[in-house]
Amino acid sequence: MRQALPTDGQGLIARKVGSGSIGPVDLSIGHGACLCVAGRSGAGKSTLLRILADLVPHTGEVWLDGQAQSDMAAPLWRRSVTYVAPDSAWWAPRVRDHFQGDATHFSDRMRLPRDLLDAAPDRLSTGERQRLALIRALLGKPAVLLLDEPSAALDSDAVLRVENLLGEFLSEGGILVLVSHDDAQIQRMATDTLVLERVPA
Amino acid sequence: MSVLTLGSGEIAIAGGLISCSAGLSLALHMGIGRRLAWAALRMSLQLLAVGYLLRLLFRSENGLLVGLVMVVMLAAAAHEIGARQSGPRRWSEFLRNLLILCISAAGVALLGLTGLSRSGPAFDAQHVIPVFGIILGTAMNSAALTLHALKSQIAGARNRIEAQLALGRDMGEATRDLSRSAIVSGTIPIINQMAGAGIITLPGIMSGQVLAGQDPTQAAIYQIFLMALLALASVVCVALTGWLFIRSITDDRQRLRLDRLGS
Hints:
Chain A: Residues 7-201 form the ABC transporter domain. The structure holds two protein chains of two kinds. By secondary structure, chain A is an alpha/beta fold.
């Protein structure tokens, strides 16, 4: 079910984006599509996601539904194009303090006990934190989610629940860029794949 | 009330006291005799030099000369802030510290002297230099402590800051916790000084004035006025230091740019 490239400027489009460590990359993802980014460690997969979120200086331009990244205030852009790091970070005393809005819908879907929301983040397991970080991002209602190994620390059952939730996000017109080392996950999720090569020094 | 006049006799007694300390160190094998003697010699020469310099300055009534001395004091304080930090020292940081001190110390000193001038001439060297000096010292402490707290915590806070930026917060929001704790560090000395004043220590100005024959209640009022100036200088200083530091590690796209710290 390969998605046709959007020709009307809709979706997430990047032209010649790059930084010191990765070469110019073009990509184009329509609404409801999931682009999986593959490549060896050090090929710049995380850097690419961080460029798309404008978290690192880069060349080239990115558009979301025809709106250029450089024309938009950076915080506004990141609210639409949200990056979720592989190692989630927490800054407030309780998990709940990090959420804008009611998280119970998402936490129920992931079978996370509700009392986790009142826990201190550093008391939780890596896998719990990872899923809660995904919920944190989803609650901001982004148009694009940039997920950096979102299920690396999860058992197979939890992985499927996460994918299920991401499927829901896609079916509502969300755009997904996914970095994953799990070939089976890429098989299940990808509508398109991008393989990054390490830039020769 | 009598004011003592000190002279070469007192210098000799002071020298004797230092010799006692050094002798004690020697007798008890404490190994600090040489360092103690050297520090005492430095202290004496520095203070005598400053005393003579100030006497010259007060007598000359040359505004330009007073201004020059103040510039040297500012530059020395700005240098000291940088010297308290680890990592390479850079011109841009020196200039930033100079700017912080110009606004916080010089600005507040001007305010204070204007206040003092209601009760007599305050814009002469005899008032300007000491008032400016105490305020400058406090501002220097505050800036150095704030900067140290920021620099030592920023690397550990990196993921927390970036996670917040990624969710669409701006740099100010993402660094709020960090700034807040650095500001607390920077204002601890002045808050301690105020809270302990009179109970734990008799502040320097007040002690000095009482020794110089001033009425203690007058000296207290003088001290309160100066403490208020010091508090203001400290608060302005930590706020400026924090703001400029956060600015220096971000760019126009609200990114965290630790590469700009140039470590």
